[in-house]
Design a protein that fits this description.
Layout: H1 48-69, H2 73-86, H3 90-103
Helix pairs in contact: 1-2, 2-3
Bound molecules: zinc ion.
Length: about 110
């Protein structure tokens, strides 16, 4: 019998990573990392707008991945570029690189 009541708190198997790029969010003023808070825990800067943008970028990246899977790299590249303009992340950069490679058709030079 499995005791499921023990699974309270961070799951070590998940690495604590949840939500839209939670690890990538940091305060634009003091660089303190934050999660799910409307104000910076260190300097008190209002972060709601940043959270909204990050959430929008996250959804754009997911749509971009879906476009890649659907065989539409042009659309994927557009969406990844839009996401990057809102909130630049390492995952977003990788996604843009993949989409750019897949949409490269006529490259000048060798
Ligand atoms: Zn701050």
């Amino acid at each position: 019998m499995v005791d499921e009541s023990i699974q309270i708190g961070p799951d070590p198997g998940q690495g604590g990573r949840s939500g839209p790029d939670a690890d990538d969010l940091s305060c634009p003023v003091c660089r303190a990392r934050f999660r799910h808070s409307r104000a910076c825990p260190r300097c008190g800067t209002e972060l709601t707008a940043l959270m909204v943008l990050a959430g929008r970028a996250y959804r754009l990246r997911r749509a971009s991945v879906a476009a890649l899977r659907a065989g539409d790299p042009l659309r994927a590249r557009e969406l990844a570029d839009q996401a990057h303009a809102l909130h630049a992340t390492d995952r977003g950069r990788r996604l843009r690189a993949v989409a750019a490679l897949l949409t490269r058709r006529e490259t000048p030079g060798p």
